[in-house]
Protein 1
Amino acid sequence: MKRVFHLCMLTAAAGLWSCSGTQQTTAPKGKVSIIPMPASISEKSDSFLLDKQTVIVANNESDKKTAALFNAWLKELTGYELDIKDQGDKNAILLHTGNDTTNVEGYTLNADHNNVTINGNSSAGTFYGVQTLIQLLPVEKAHAMYIPGVSITDAPRFAYRGLHLDACRHFFSVDFVKKYIDLLAMHKMNTFHWHLTDDQGWRIEIKKYPRLQEIASKRKETMAGRYDDNKYDGKPYGGYYTQEQVKEVVQYAADHFVTVIPEIEMPGHALAALAAFPNLGCTGGPYETGTHWGVYDDVFCAGNDSVFLFLQDVLDEVLPLFPSKYIHIGGDECPKVRWEKCPKCQARMKKEGLKDEHALQSYFIQRMEKYLNSKGRQIIGWDEILEGGLAPNATVMSWRGIEGGITAAQQKHDVIMTPGEFCYFDHYQSKSPNEPLAIGGFLPVNKVYSYEPVPAELNSDQAKYIKGAQANLWSEYIGNNDYMEYMVYPRASALAEVLWSPKDKRNYDNFIDRLKVHVKRLDLKKVNYAKHVFAVTGAVTDNGKGGVQVELGCKLDGGKIFFTSDSTAPTPQATPYTQPVQISHAGTIRAQAFADGKPFGNEFSQTFIFHKGMAKKVTLTNAADKSHSPASTFTLVNGVVGNASYNDGEWFGFKGVNMEAVVALDSIQDIQQVGINTINAKGDWIYPPKQVVFSVSDDGKIYKEVYKQTAFAQEGINKVRGKLQQVRGRFVKVQMQNFGKIPAGAPAGAGNPAWLFADEFIIE
């Protein structure tokens, strides 16, 4: 009787009672929730009871470290740790590590009423099996718990699964970096890209050059607010990692089977180093560590041998700290304006027979690559290293879209995909006006999850060179730990599944269901994750009746949506959402999810303009470039004005070609105004049109010009508007002439095709 009483106490404490009050003796089937989704998983009818008597069997030092990491998690839930033993075969978690080199990160996991057995193809595979085991545990605290009976066979789809951290624009402590790595490993990611040098700060100790710590690691102030505001906080800022701290981080990462790849920027993004050593620049200075964001013209002098000796000395201290095969050398955003006027650089070009400054950059990269190759290392560089000729053994990180990755793979170079559209987590993840400041763009969780790293343009042999992908976290606007976590999760959870799980196993709705459990694990790790994915989402769609509607949705279990159409804040007393909201006038739709009468997550807010052309048929003569092409031409007349960051899915981008569109109204009507929006952002190769011409026709064949504009001076969005008098017609045409080639002397991209952006074709 006493034994039965203790069993009841145990199961009650573990929360193992059904809603009917009867004792539940197994874990409920169908409740397995693992991110990333395993390659193969089947559930069984039985389960394993974990309690204080359970032991972990591990017979090598690596597996014992992994067992200790499991115990650390278990202690948070149960208050105790399990004994780690060399042998055991009952009531045990058995860790076995083999030597299967076909897929070193693979593992199998079998759980039944007797034991949990994890067989790793290597110690890394065993580690990932334990990460899966952690996710089989309940997320509620208890003294004992059931692990569901499962049979799992798992291995990653991609070998490189990475997260990046920019410690230069803002500095992050060693403790935070460890937590960052811990979370990375929890999601079965295996690479930490640590950005350590840039214009705004040099963050790694180099003992031979103490001025890097004394001068280059500090700046006199930091930008405050938006870049365009050009305001500063007036406060000195600095920080760097000692070599001992770097060793500590690298070892911590190794214990979590994470490789740390350092980035030492060259030849651009070098202003902090030049502030300490002005002789390394083309002009000799004086220089100061960068205080504003963006790209600086002052870079390492490619004609000065002292630069190469300095960088070799730096790398000689960096290499012993990082055992990684790869060293990232940057290679991006290097203006050539100083090189064009520098006698040393021009002499170098003449001596080496280099045709232009792009070839000079290639010379710089290849020279440093040869040095690193001599030390047994390989380089990774951003896709600009393709310009002027790719270094022989280089791996390319494709960030300016996917084109660089395609080109590199076709040349049989390894590629890490990290296109801004899908992998830049410094972009906004919500359109809410309450969202904290970010660099721009719009990248919600569902878009991250939709990413396919292997471009369709590659054949099967070329696709083998796509080694994986990485999310980048540039920290211009991310100044503290909480905000960094907010920007990373749960977007990194989505990318982790993209990179680990089989392509045919991915399902967004299923992922969201699992994420509802997974965020409770993030709660246990005290992660300040964003909750947008469970808040209200809205899609602007064609209602099929010649109008525009907003379809609202919410993934929050038990949540209800309320909305307003008069720009006022939604409350539980507002209109409940039951069907798509029809847009019948200009204004703002605002919607909020409420659970138990309390708001959950950020609200949805979308402002509309209203005009005659909304939802009418649009014909484009030239297709937009695929990297900036909304799903339908409906977007050009949906009443939504694209944002100034041109990455919200509203803008049509035309690379080197003209834009021409025709809107067909329902009938011949009076037309009092025509308009369209375009962008002037020359630093990003986006140029205003040479001219915009509007024409009107009754029959769609014979057009009469009604308005022309040739000046677009405003930086950012230019609203082209033409007031008309006594104009009637049914068909309205807009023709936007592309600027053509980017002119010589431009900050970047000279000679490349200019982009032309267009959004919202207005007819009133």
Protein 2
Amino acid sequence: MTKFRAKLTYILILLIGGSMLIAGIFMAKVLENSHVQSLKDNMQRELMVISATGDWNRTGTESEQLAYYTSQAKLIKASTEARLTFVRADGKVMGDSDQNPEQMDNHLNRPEIAAAVTNGVGYTTRYSDTLREKMLYAAVPVKSGDKVTGYLRIALSLEQVDQSIRSLWYFLVAGLAILFVIAGIVSYRIASGITRPIEKMTRVAQQITNMNYESRVASYSNDEVGQLGQAINRMSESLQQQMARIQENERRLQGVMENMMSGIMMIDREERIMLLNPSAEYILGFTAQELLGKKYNEAKQQYEFAKLIQECIETREPIRDEMIFYYPAERILDINLNPIAHEDEEWSGVLIVINDITAVRRLERMRSEFVANVSHELKTPIAAVKGFAETLLAGALNDKETAVSFLQIIFDESERLNRLIGDILELSKIESKRIPMQFSPIYLPEFLEKSLSVLRKEAEKKHIELSLHVDDDIYIEADEDRLRQIFINLLSNGISYTQEGGKVKVRVEPLEMNTDGDYERLRIIVSDTGIGIPKKDLPRIFERFYRVDKARSRISGGTGLGLSIVKHLVELHKGTIRVDSEVGIGTKFTIELPVIH
């Protein structure tokens, strides 16, 4: 903007100075011409006065006339300081104030004399060879009646005129110099007044370019510059609003992308990976820094996955497929590929949505196994009831001892069938969260003691020692019936799978004391010295109908749903349960529950 200000200043100086220079030159020429014209008028008047007052028709010999006119010319020069010459009608010089007339040429053809003959007065400016300087000549005819008897010529040196003109030029140059300085200052002020708001607008525009949309131009007048500033302010406000909307949309999109459970990958028209959300990083096992900017076939991806992308790029059609990935962990993925096109239908890339459906497929498998297990578990007692009933109908009813034995078996199997159906219904309610939870404060030592007393007779039959270790001042807020169901199941399993003379223990450990001295969580451990569980079966111990030893489980009267019910009930209390076991040493169930104040 400084260059523009300098240019504008120079232009204004040149315009003002040039105009003043032209005006000065014109004025000088007018003054020069006026001065010369004034000299001519004065010379004419002087010649007319000399002609009227002098005797210019004197008679006598030529030598007498020469002497007379020369003396008159010198006399007049002494008074006027102008050269005076008397020329006879035939052009003969009869007298001159500065030179010897006898030595002078005939002047009849001189321009001033010729002009005087024609116009009555003649003027000319020329260099005088006699006086060797530039002279202004004026001539008038001298008449005797109507007859021209000669010519009077007066000459004035132009040195005086030139001196006056030089003085005028000196004054003009000095005035122009002063005016140039004033014009420069004024031009600079004018240029600054014009460029200063433009500079401020330029700075605001640069700040807007640097995304500082809060910058504004100071208000100016309503002229074109002010209107430009107002337009920039409106543009800045509009850009600020648009950028705010864009940033808000970006934040929303970023939040959606970062929190989506589905993996999102985008490939541009150059087949490079341009977008990858955290879920996609987790599913694929690579970070965004490792994949972004690389071509999909160079990104160390599974061959079948890269082939699927290539097929979508070639066909430009949506593709959906399920695929098993083995890195970073074995997963079943549902992959959706959709080509991206703009409004002008120009293809711009591929959008890939990846869903981890491993849990879904596992759930479907578990449901399938559940149906199969339910069918199998129901089939066994029903087959037993049906078989013994057919035997009784076939004639065994007459044998009273056999009939009673068969009827007892039928009763036991129906009881088992009733328990199985009851557990299935109970598990279904728990999983669907259709059971109401009635939380209330529970004094844990008394509660656990009552739970142990329910199973004490059963433990005594196998000479199993039941023990409880809990502090006296521990309370917990929970659903009492459901909590009792949890411990009855765990204690019953411990008694069932512990050999005679073994031990089943319950221990409570407070955890996470807060600033008020209250416990935030409790750890409840139910352990036994039973047969234990193999390590390969531990991950599936809480699955429905999963049994480590199916034959022995049926003998114990279990339905295979107890631990699954326990796990769901613990989760309904916002707690966790885990199992540790070693074959031949025993099993330990650890439950952690929050203490609700």
Protein 3
Amino acid sequence: MNETSINKQYQNIIDLLRQKRLKEALRQTETLITQGNVNPALTNRLEQDKTSYEYMLQYMRQGMEDPQRKGMYQQLCAGAWNLADLIRLNLLDKDSTHYYHELRRTQTYRPSEISIKETLHLLEGISDDIALFRLTANGKPLPSELLQKHDNNCRDIFLETWTNSRWSKEEENEANLWLESISLPSIDLCIMTSAVTLSLLECFDEAKLLWLLQATRHNETAPAQRALVGLALALLTYGKRLELYPKITQALTLHNEEYGLGIQLNRIIIQLLRAQDTEKINRKMQQEILPEMMKNADLLRQMRLGTEETEEEDANPDWAETFDRMGLTEKIQEMNELQMEGSDIYMSSFAMLKNYPFFHDLVNWFVPFYQEHSSIAPLLTGTNPLSRPLLFLLESGFFCNSDKYSLAFMLQYLPQAQRDQMVTQLTNADIDRLEEENHVSQLQKHAARPEVISNQYVHDLYRFFKLNRRRTEFRDPFAETIHPYECEILRTLLGEDKQMRQVADFLFQKERRTEALPIYQELTTRIPDDAELFQKVGFCLQKEKRYDEAINAYRMADVLKPDHVWTIRHLATCYRLSHQYDKALEYYLHIEQIQPGNATVLYYAGACLAALSRYEEALQYFFRLDLQEENCIRAWRSIAWCSLLSGRWPQAAKYYGRIPEEERNADDDLNAGHTSWVSGDLPAAVKHYRKAAARYGSHVLFRQAFDRDRIVLVGLGIDAEDIPLMEDQVF
């Protein structure tokens, strides 16, 4: 069997289990076993499950009352799902070339069997050794052997945990010791938390999910926030399956009641949703913001203030005007706003800096940044003149851990001449002033906030799934649509009105209206007196061109909040776009009563009257618009068209003639040709038609446009037999 075939048959089994077709799922599992050489213990488990299910069905046929039947069926379904997981892994371990299965086959990362508990004690001991060395070292850097020993043990436990598909009871108890340890560094627990998350995404494990849940209550912020992100990803991945595990659902419910788990998870969900917009932000950064700033780099350099105390520190007021004229103010403000809301604006900048050997080791994508990591310690400790400014930059909270390592390696591998130049340009006075102006302590406090830590970790995960060299071997959670309310337990945790509204508003703001719509629709059933919700439902439907449904939503909003101009205007727009011009006109006239002289209303009211063939009335609106706006080309076009259709041909010719040549389009020349033809000026008509054909760019497009107006021309007195002849005059 090949990898594709194994995964396909496994997915068939899972689909049957989701449909509660247990007997068929067990048969498919038996077929999967017979096609591959799996562990005999798994075959025995399958036989036991089949026998148990047959007994349960037999008791049911005999009409025997069994109060435990529901629970037993749930256990059998969960067991069948777990068994399918293990059989799939067992088969893939033999054939797959993925790193995960390669490690499970060879176990080469671990020279000897060391338990989770023993690794914990090793890391605690290393932490004690480091603390002792600092007491006696008189400022000397930590020995590289000690740092390397720490990093190697972290790597080993990461790989061991990741490739362990299911913890035994003993392993579960030993893993819990990591959460209870008071001497284990936060960095090490962060690495363990990431390993548990990655393992859980490879294969469901009840024990690991409960471990992550417990870790969310850890007193160290960094591992607790990592656990929250991992828990959110697990719940999104396995949501419906969790209904088979009452222990998990009970624990989640309890944590929600006691610690507000749902509120915290809701924040993580929004951060995950925001991460999905990273590619769009990257394109904007690469195509709009950065090119504009690079184009004006000289001006930005000129605006750097001096550092001497005797110099005046006022900026040239002309610079602000120059910024506005070049559009830089808007670009910089946009970039700042994206960064303040937590968007990932650095992905594109650091994507090319993930090829260092450091990132070839899987664990290093998840290591929290710390200056004593064996790979970068020489750069950031001791007398290196770059260490102080670099540490300031890395502690400010601007970058995720992965990018901090990238930045450190970039400087580490710079030629010595360039490093010396940087040191020369960045004096101690510069650094002192920089630290004072930017309030380092405040930035460090900001970087330590839970929401900042979790968001930066989401950025780390995003880079791992998008950039690591084995990324095709992993299921990418950021490439999948996030459904936060798809299963019962997620709805229990995240289904508060306020939380749902936060998610919907985020999606709405990011123009992901298809995802926001069903959430808003559900909220309108919960909060039926909220006009804004109905407005947003209407707007989402309108953008999907579902105009009749949008009208219903807008009308509800209008009932709840009468005479709101925004609602009335969108009602008018939906009626107009669905060609219900009489109803659209009613709403435009209503707006005109509230906002007399609104130019947009004048135009569309006239357009609706014209569509209803009420040309004389339409002309009155277009004339008012022409008086109100100087050189109003849209008014001239409309006046000309209505004049043509109402028999005022000289007036039509006059207004088509007003449109400047550079503003004219193909339709203008076509309609001017119609005007000349019905007026009897055939040479002028041919001239206009030829200009129109040139603007359309092809004979086909011109003939299509001409034929579209055939009924209009006949209605204005043109003989239908002459139309083909006129078309031939043009070419």
